Amino acid sequence: MTATIDEAVRVGVYRFPTPEPEADGTLRWEATTAVTVEIDAGGQTGLGWTYSGGATAAIVREVLAPVLAGRSPFDIGDCRIRMQRACRNLGTAAVVAHALSAVDIALWDLKARLLDVPLSRLFGAVRPATPVYGSGGFTTLTDDELGEQIDGWLSAGCRDVKIKIGEDRGERTDRDLERVSFANGLLGDRAHLMVDANGAYSTALARRVGTELDRHGVIWFEEPVTSDDPSGLALLRAALRCDVTAGEYVYRHYDAAALIGSVDCLQLDVTRCGGYSGFVECAALAAAHGLDISAHCAPALHAPIVSSFAHLRHVEWFIDHSRLEPLLADGVPEVRDGALAAGRGAGHGMRLAGSAGKYSVEGAGHR
Ligand SMILES: [Mg+2]
Description:
The chain is of the alpha/beta class. 39% of the residues lie in helices and 22% in strands. The mean pLDDT is 96.
């Protein structure tokens, strides 16, 4: 089969307001922005996206799309190397990695559609569906609102639930621990509690908070300190009983390698770590070190790939994304009995939704 990528890569920017202002330990936000990429070849269209900002769209339009034009959509490795090389002077991490990830996802979707197979078949599966964990529990929520989120996750069959701590950059540890105790009380023995500090604490404060978390039976302490500090994470990993985890800012396999030995579970995000190609690469690196992985956010995009890895624990069913993904795309796979299965149909099975138009901030313009 021959097909070449059309020159016109379509890029869209969509802003989805949150119902209320939200915050974790180190950031506040009132909306989530998705940047979509559509790539055409051989009469088919591949769709990818990332959660980022308008700068990502400019990188796709100005730097990546010209590299792709005329290439084979089957040679994703070739496209990937050429795009990375084109970004040398921009750097290949952060916003550029978001752009590379969205394009890689669109290319894999396109390839599977050209072959007329589900993407999950292309990757292969070791289980029919993958457990999700409920995630949200923002520091801005009232106890009643937190209780509602937790009830929702429990009724959906989640066996693990994650809340945010580290409020006001670690200034409110008393409230952090009160919320942990409150959430634990609601969960009882129905689900395990996980927490995410988003790098809010110093190493010493994280050790003291972590000791209390151990006392509460919390099983997962995500980014107790910034993930830029692997030695701080390693120190906490050695001191605490709960798992210490990080990885949502892994952009390249080098970043994943830097966290080996410092975490108990490596988090990977297809919308940041180089798309499906980067996910496979980093997952292999983790497997080679006996390290479990977990998918960070973007559940709809993770659905086709997460069932491929025996050492993958779960997918983060992040409330902001599970709320907006059905507005952005048609065909979003649903959580059933606490697990996520890949969508049916060719590719990842999703198309840009008509309803997305009203959230567009610059139109789904052509480059
Ligand atoms: Mg996190």
